[in-house]
């Protein structure tokens, strides 16, 4: 489903170049004239990224956490005030429908997700309320900005806070909204969820204080290098959580807790964890930058002319060159010569997850059989 998002007011900033028409990032800036410099700033200093095209919703009601816990993959029933988490909504077969970030703060759960999936997620949540004291509602009056880089520590006075929060923690901002620390795409990553009518003022204040304007190109390049998936780009209709590295509780920076009550799709998660292996792994690919053409999201990844995977996000990184994420069959060795669409590709060996750990269920079965 194509969703039209109003252009961000930050696109009026000098040098702003909008994302490609029809892309998920068309409503915000892709870069501000120096994409590689913007990436360096996000790694070495401080950069601010307009992500105001994210869909934001909030859930109120006394049972908001215990109710959300029963219908999603993360353990959120006991989140304390200011705690955040990543979470998934799965279908009956355990395939990922929605990925979202949530924050419990001041009597409400705040959720942000991809614009194209937000309305469907909200509809699902509303459908599942039944008799619970939980009220999900779209929060069109709030928007997301991201701050990246070690220099964010020097912006606390501008933000109006005493100190930066820890990972997956949030602190309220004066005048409304909050600052949330995330574990990716860099070691120093923060999201500001702010009233939308403060968006331009916050941007002006933070850039005046030293944060370099950076486009979604920067965010995406660093995200891909960190091997963090973006739903709808790096996933397809068959993706299960194990394939996309979403397994783990809050402490593991995951989105699927393996020791919690029932939720839709749990059977697949448990079966793969205890007895099987995921059919595919999300891997980082290095692409041949000398080719005249570039592959596109959704292209086949092939080995010897045989399809072995699906290409996700393709982006140019300031140090690594052209890179991409791809879902590759688990059985493909890391040194296999690949083609991603029209170009040669190679698997980054450091991105290959360990695949030699025995599943708990297999160990138990073998023990019963005397092996």
TrEMBL record:
Keyword Transit peptide: yes
UniProt KW Transit peptide keyword: yes
Coiled coil residues, start to end: none
Keywords of the record: Transit peptide
Boundaries of every GCVT N-terminal domain copy: 38-244
UniProt xrefs under InterPro entries: GCVT_N, TrmE/GcvT-like, YgfZ/GCV_T_CS, YgfZ/GcvT
Top-rank lineage group of the source organism: Bacteria
Gene3D superfamilies, per the entry: Probable tRNA modification gtpase trme, domain 1
Protein name as catalogued: Folate-binding protein YgfZ
Lineage: Bacteria, Bacillati, Actinomycetota, Actinomycetes, Mycobacteriales
């Amino acid at each position: 489903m194509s969703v039209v998002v109003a252009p961000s007011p930050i696109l009026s900033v000098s040098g702003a170049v909008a994302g490609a028409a029809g892309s998920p990032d068309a409503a915000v800036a892709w870069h501000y004239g120096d994409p590689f410099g913007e990436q360096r700033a996000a790694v070495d200093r401080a950069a601010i990224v307009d992500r105001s095209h994210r869909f934001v919703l909030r859930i109120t009601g006394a049972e908001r956490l215990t109710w959300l816990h029963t219908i999603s993959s993360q353990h959120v029933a006991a989140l304390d005030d200011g705690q955040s988490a990543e979470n998934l909504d799965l279908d009956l077969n355990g395939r990922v429908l929605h990925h979202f970030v949530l924050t419990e703060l001041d009597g409400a759960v705040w959720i942000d997700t991809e614009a194209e999936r937000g309305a469907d997620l909200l509809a699902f949540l509303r459908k599942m309320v039944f008799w619970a004291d939980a009220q999900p509602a779209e929060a069109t009056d709030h928007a997301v900005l991201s701050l990246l880089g070690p220099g964010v520590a020097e912006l606390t006075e501008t933000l109006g806070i005493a100190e930066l929060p820890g990972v997956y923690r949030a602190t309220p901002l004066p005048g409304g909204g909050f600052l949330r620390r995330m574990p990716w795409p860099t070691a120093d990553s923060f999201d500001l969820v702010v009233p939308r009518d403060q968006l331009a003022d916050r941007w002006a204040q933070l850039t005046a204080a030293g944060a370099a304007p950076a486009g979604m190109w920067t965010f995406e390049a660093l995200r891909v290098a960190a091997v963090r998936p973006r739903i709808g780009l790096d996933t397809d209709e068959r993706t299960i959580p194990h394939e996309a590295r979403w397994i783990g509780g809050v402490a593991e920076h995951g989105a699927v807790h393996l020791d919690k009550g029932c939720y839709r799709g749990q059977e697949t998660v448990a079966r793969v964890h205890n007895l099987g292996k995921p059919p595919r792994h999300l891997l980082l690919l290095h692409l041949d930058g000398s080719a005249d053409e570039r592959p596109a999201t959704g292209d086949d990844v092939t080995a010897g002319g045989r399809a072995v995977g699906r290409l996700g996000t393709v982006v140019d990184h300031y140090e690594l060159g052209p890179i991409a994420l791809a879902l590759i069959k688990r059985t493909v060795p890391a040194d296999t010569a690949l083609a991603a669409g029209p170009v040669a590709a190679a698997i980054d060996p450091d991105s290959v997850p360990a695949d030699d750990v025995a599943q708990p269920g297999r160990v138990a079965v073998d023990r019963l059989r005397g092996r």
